[in-house]
Design goal:
The chain is mostly beta strands and 203 residues long. It has helices spanning 36-39, 42-61, 182-186; strands at residues 12-16, 21-25, 30-34, 73-79, 82-91, 94-104, 113-119, 122-123, 128-129, 132-140, 150-158, 167-173, 198-202. The longest helix is centred in the first third of the chain and has 20 residues, at 42-61. The strands form 3 sheets. Strands 4-5-6-7-10-11-12 form a 7-stranded antiparallel β-sheet, with no helix packed on it. A 4-stranded mixed β-sheet has the order 1-2-3-13. Strands 8-9 form a two-stranded antiparallel ribbon.
Amino acid sequence: MRRLVPKSVRRDSQLFDGVTYVYHTEGSPEGGAFLPEYLGDGSILHSAIQSNLMSFFGWLRNPFQISRFASHRYTATEGEGVVTLRKVWEGSGVSYVDRTIVIDAGTSSYPRVLSTEILGPLIGPDGETEIRETTSFADFREVAPGVMPPFEIDHTVYTDGRCDGPRVRRHYRIQEARLLSDEEIEAIPFGALEPGTIWTIWR
């Protein structure tokens, strides 16, 4: 028996200038502007803002979320046209692979990351995890010399850490991207999302 899964499309506009974060859902009469005082609460930033902000900001800055800390240790294995990197986490007498990154072995000048998986922390004798996220990447395009991000991202969060359990899946498709000139950046009006929108100020 096939199970039908309803699909819906929601378009969000987001703006972050490094100080204030503005968020608005298309068609909604009200948007939110989050001031630095509000962003200072770490728990609020994580639960109410970061889940929306990081999806796009992360795509711009580090879409594959590859750690750049020199202390993090990776192992690499090759096979069937891919290179698999595994990052080992060690602490409190426990050692396990908390991040796996699969790279297309045929791309040397700009390695294309095909997928990533995040696990941890380990709990229980069967190696169960309470955090599990998987992400796959496709449609790589060059937007500047040496810059080739993925324009399709499929991200799944397993809410109880099990592959056979409930999950939340988000699919991102970037339609178009290009670098702006300095003049174009200066011309962007702050908060110009939709005229006539009521803004709720969170501070």
